[in-house]
Amino acid sequence: MGGPNLEVFKFGMYIMFPIAIMYYYGTNLDKRFSVPDFWPKPEQTHRIPFEREEIKSELERLRERRLFLREKRLGENQGKSGGGSGEGSS
């Protein structure tokens, strides 16, 4: 039917098509598949403390935050349970 030239052309297409696809999707990946502001900036992330003083201050900060949230949660629970005691008792 086609002869040797057709076979060479088909073989070339079989080889070049996957290479062309890989080249197209493999070049300029930073602009094509990037999501802006996906990773946080270094100043927005938490730095892990390694020094003894930094660890102590971080533990103190976490303890204060935990106690603050506990007090806030207990205040909300007392407000909810204290307001409904006198209603509907007649």
UniProtKB/TrEMBL annotation:
InterPro entries (UniProt xref): Pet100
GO process annotations (BP): mitochondrial respiratory chain complex IV assembly
Localization of this protein: Membrane; Mitochondrion membrane
Chief place where the protein resides: membrane
Membrane topology: Single-pass membrane protein
Bilayer-crossing regions: 6-25
Pfam families reported in the protein's UniProt record: Pet100
Family named by the database record: Belongs to the PET100 family.
Protein name, as recorded: Mitochondrial cytochrome c oxidase assembly factor
Organism: Cudoniella acicularis
